[in-house]
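Hi support team,

I submitted a single chain yesterday and got back a structure, but I'm not sure I'm reading the token output correctly. Could someone confirm the output below corresponds to the sequence I sent? I've pasted both exactly as they appear in my results page.

Thanks,
R.
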Amino acid sequence: MKPRLQTTLGQQLVLTPQLRQAIHLLQLSALELEAELAEAVENNPLLDWAEPESLHIADATEAEAPQPDPGDGAPPDDVPPWTRDDEPWQQRSGGSSDDTEEGDAAERVAEPQTLRDHLQWQLHLTHLSVRDRRIGAAIIDAIDDDGYLREPLESLRETLRPDVVASVEEIATVLHQLQAFDPAGVGARSLGECLALQLAPLPEDTPGRPLALRIAAGPIDRLPRVGIEGIALELQCEPSEANLALQLLRSLDPRPGAQIGSLPTDTYITPDCVIWRHQGLWRVALAGSRAPRLTIHRGYEQMIGHTGSSDSYLRGRLQEARWLLRNIEARGETLLKVVRCLVRQQSGFLEFGAQALRPLTLREVAAEVGLHESTVSRAIARKYVRTPRGTVALRSFFASGIDTEGGGETSSIAIQTMIRRLIDDENPRKPLSDARLAESLKAAGVPVARRTVAKYREAMGIASSQDRVRIA
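Hi R., thanks for writing in. Yes, this is the structure output for that exact sequence:
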């Protein structure tokens, strides 16, 4: 077959560099955007951080300008500039008119869960008696931030008196129950016991596991002095086998409590937007607008204007800087547009909590704001918003729906909230089964099948009715 030239006519979508950059910036979180801008400033000499003084001068100039009448919809002077929002769309909300309290709540950032809270939550889900729970609570209070129980059981026995008179054996039995909690290894009284607790759930055929258990039971404390050869000689095994067991031990966590008690800095949530209430209106603004902003270096810009068209490098960098600034502004406008839509649709969630969350999909939001579904998906990806109910992910505003008997729809999250309330109010001696929960929801106008109730219950980490029986 001879090669030949052939002309065809067709259409192909080509993304320009500017559009690619806009899409890339839109899907970045707040921390990722900050890192992206820092890299851009480092690589582009035409970009620079705006000086804080210039921001203060701009604020002073705005303060000297004539202020509009409060009746024209402009925000009053007591609203912080970083949370101002002049859009007239906000809905009037009901409920309490104490805006100061709501504003203070909007400033709160979700606090990290402590190890004690994590263990207490698991203790509440166990089938232990009230007496054993009191013993478990005392043990949890004695566990340090690393996850170790440093106090002897005899001291715990004295601490429980006179409310609970328990023997050391009873305390040890409850401690054994707590040592099965997450994270693995919590409640250990020594390093060897901590490692043994983490080795226990591993499959028996795990390479090096039997020998690792023997090392954790005793020679682990002598390892720094005798080395691998000394451990192998003491346990009467080959050095290669001892080395394999030590590699398995090194893969374990000697401080399991640190996984829960102290979060690394890079896991802190930085909200992208702020939602707060002022004079009965829900307001929206981008968070961190007081942070240093990017600007074009005026000195280089003036130099380019005087040098003519010969310096193509600086002119190219100037064009890139202008594209970046425009795309950052477009990212903020798109994010605000989507969040405003979410607040309009889910104002009940902000007022009353998760039980008032209505069904909402990406398609509905995209149709209302005039964007494509993929654009809305990128806009809410890894984004968080600070609200009077804490810092929540934007994806939590979306929920699937189930038809009710009244002709409306109820979100799946609202149904989960109803199930949790029914379980919290149940008789601990006769917990509600999934079928009984389904009947209660149906009586409330939400027809849900038993299998759906079981799925939601398991998703919330709630045990079955048989495991929730409490005999006190």
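A quick pointer for reading it: Strands lie at 47-49, 273-278, 281-286, 294-296, 384-387, 390-393, 401-403, 409-411. Let us know if anything else looks off.

Best,
Support desk
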